[in-house]
Amino acid sequence: MATLVGKVLLWATIVLCLVITLVPRFLDARYYNGAVSGHFDGQRFFNPDGEQDDVAPPGATKANFLVRYLLRSEGRPRWPEHVAIRPIAPPDRVAGQRMVATWVGHATVLVQTQGLNILTDPVWSKTAGPLGIGPARVAETGIAFDRLPKIDVVLISHDHYDHLDLATLRRLWKRDHPLVVTSLGNDSVIGQAGVPAHALDWGGRIAVKPNVEVIVTRNHHWGSRWMTDRNRALWSSFVVRLPGGNVFFAGDTGPGDLTWADAAASYGPVRLALIPIGAFRFAPGQMVSGSHIGPIDAAEVYRRLGASTGIGIHWGTFHLSAEAYDTPPRLLAAVTRAAGLQGFGTVALGQPSVISRYVARDRPAPIDRIEIVGRLPAAARALP
Prior knowledge:
The protein is an alpha/beta fold. The chain is about 25% helix and about 15% strand. It contains 9 helices and 14 strands. Strands 6-5-4-3-2-1-14 form a 7-stranded mixed β-sheet, with no helix packed on it. It has a 7-stranded mixed β-sheet with strand order 7-8-9-10-11-12-13, with helices on one face. Strand 1 (about 100-105) and strand 2 (about 110-115) form a beta hairpin.
């Protein structure tokens, strides 16, 4: 009996060693092969303005943080179990320079203008993670998939599961055959769903129709599907150049040097900016992380863009971080008031919003994190 137990333990040890040795290599993948550049070292992509994209809070290791996160023992404020919404079916098409935007949830927004239906980072799955394991959707999608109009253009910012959902992309391709635009390497991931995608480097552009084009632009983030394939595919924001003013979609981003917002503004006036405001707090009182901007930096991005209208996204859908459910919109409202910014706020899920024509606004002074926090009301500074 002792001999049998010894053999079982021996083989278990061998199998465990093989798993530890082989599985990470198996889960790694080379999504892109290309020349070395200012943000690609021949193997992996990187932020040219410095990494600073760790997901763990100060004083914690990634492993410790992830274990506590999965066990929900890191002291996160409670979120509602379910958020009721009353979606309104969007129009089939919006012609000319009229523009309608509908927030579907998280980073998914339907933008309708020029007879085009443009969808950003579409996720209709109930969870955001591999094999159906991951944060569950708190709010239902703002548009039921079968009420979604025919989609012409899909923008995919990077390969994280809460932004690149293969199941949704497969359904969209089977139904509509849209033009899918992304950044380098993500076409390999998207291709796993049998969906062709146009993958471009930062600065690359593709025409959609006369006078309409998509430009892939820089932001500050990282990519991975299985951790060991970290930064094998590039992350990006997008500018959709349109008559009457552009649409800017920030994707998923930390602040970095913030000059990527200046670069996006150089392509012309920004009529609508879709900017993340949530999943920024991984330690008490934190206002920004390396991977995600919070309301303060989102307001500075909006200011740098010189945008006419802004919608705060990337909040209230998946519980990814340690701020309370409604902290992002409440803090954004306080920050924009203190900074003297107009036109940047949040919208209700599933409610089509008519976007005003582009209006040039006077730009207030740059927003300094420390200075603006001191100008916020005490109640805003104390938001969990």
